[in-house]
Amino acid sequence: MEKKKHIFVACLLVIAIACIGIMNIKYDRLSRYPYQDEESRKIINEYLTDEEIEYIIEYSIAPNVFISFIDVDGFNIYHASEYKQLSNLLWQEKPENIVQMVEATRDYITVDQLYNLLNNYKYNEIIYYFEIKDAYNPDSILVENAKSIDAYLDDTYTVGIRVPSNLQAIDEEIIAADDSVQLEASCAQALYQMCLAITDSEEYQDTKCGGIEIQRGYVSYDKQKAIYDEMQKNNPDVSGILNYPGHDEHQLGLAVDLSLHGLDASNFSKTAQYQWLVDNAYKYGFIQTYTDQSFNDTHKSAKLYHFRYVGVTLATYIHDNGLTLKQALGK
């Protein structure tokens, strides 16, 4: 009898030990997690809820996908793959910046689109566009290739509040301009080459750029907005004359308004220098984007004093085929 009692107690002890083991398994939230790095397990247990742990177990999400972001404000385990993807593309960015960028933009664009925009815009310029929106055209589209010399702007396409990163002041030894005039570097260099060419021509020898002056180069978003809003007070149809702020080629730093000293720009098309430009500007990468021919594309009145830099290859193609910029780009 005593022996049976001992056996019974031993059985109870075995059962108790087994139950304790089962209970321990039950309360080890990561018992089914296949990644056994102890340090990661501690961090996961500290920061993730039961539901979130079930998620990483179900989808076998390895710690290296999310551990570096897990303690950042705004972290969301369900967006971990997006953090990892952007981090691989922007490997020098801090984890807190990665989380912030993904969370702020994921409702609008994919990680790949965000990465492409970050190659053309500063982060604050992207956020401004998506969060503040375009007050002048809520259905506008942010141009992805804003750095490119063939970036296309019109009433639909915009660069928001973007400021080009490589603006430079005009060399007034080559062409006369106001002290405040700036252009994107490649546009400025092409303009200088064109000025040297007209200066070397027989008709305009020994005159700085054939007497041509820059009336306007780069124009910031804020300056455009001030001009547009002021003119709109007295002219409700101003959109047929001016571009919406953020939609103007001048903001690219790739456009110039040209004239002669003391001459109203509207009369520039009557000068011999203008005709020289019509015949030769494309050789240096410049085209006219606001003409009578382009009205159906731009819905803007002709500005024959306005020249846009697109590079020699595209300018020559447009010139030789009698196309508008929109037609040439297939927009």
Can you walk through the features of this model?
The protein is built from 14 helices and 9 strands. With 331 residues, the protein is α/β, with parallel strands linked by helices. It has a domain of 169 residues: 2-Layer Sandwich (Muramoyl-pentapeptide Carboxypeptidase, domain 2). The strands form 3 sheets. A 5-stranded mixed beta sheet has the order 4-6-7-9-8. Strands 1-2 form a two-stranded parallel sheet. Helix 5 packs across helix 6. The chain is elongated and about 90 Å long. About 4% of the residues have low confidence.
List how many beta strands DSSP finds.
9
Strand content: 5-15%
| Secondary-structure arrangement, i.e. CATH architecture of the domain at 161-329 | 2-Layer Sandwich
Briefly note the CATH topology name of the domain at 161-329: Muramoyl-pentapeptide Carboxypeptidase, domain 2
Radius of gyration: 32 Å
Q: Compute the separation of the termini in Å.
A: 97 Å
Count of DSSP H/I helices: 14
Principal-axes shape call = elongated
Going across the biggest sheet, name each strand in turn: 4-6-7-9-8
Name the poorly predicted regions.
8-12, 18-25
The computed structural class is: alpha/beta
CATH C-level class of the domain at 161-329 is Alpha Beta
Largest sheet: 5 strands, mixed
Give, in order, the helices and strands. HHHHHHHHEEEEEHEHEHEHEHH
Give the fraction of residues assigned to helices.
40-55%
